[in-house]
Amino acid sequence: MPDEEPHAIRIHLDRLLVERGMTLTELSAQVGITVVNLSVLKNGRAKAIRFSTLSRICEVLRCQPGDLITHAPTEQT
């Protein structure tokens, strides 16, 4: 498998789950997507996210997309 292209997008799902006292399994059940797919997102390995999924995650976690996803560019050397 070829190396994935580096990116500066950071996912803060772990922090939000801790703050909400919720497990990945509970979020999965409420959002309606698999734990495996949420885990891929949580670990920053997702290549894309549907707006409908992002919207549902934000509804369940009572957050804004910017609370879940941020851009943290690194300086080019």
From TrEMBL:
GO terms for molecular function: DNA binding. InterPro entries: Cro/C1-type_HTH, Lambda_DNA-bd_dom_sf. PROSITE patterns: HTH_CROC1 (PS50943). Residues 13-68 form the HTH cro/C1-type domain. PANTHER family: DNA-BINDING PROTEIN, DNA-BINDING PROTEIN-RELATED. This is Transcriptional regulator.
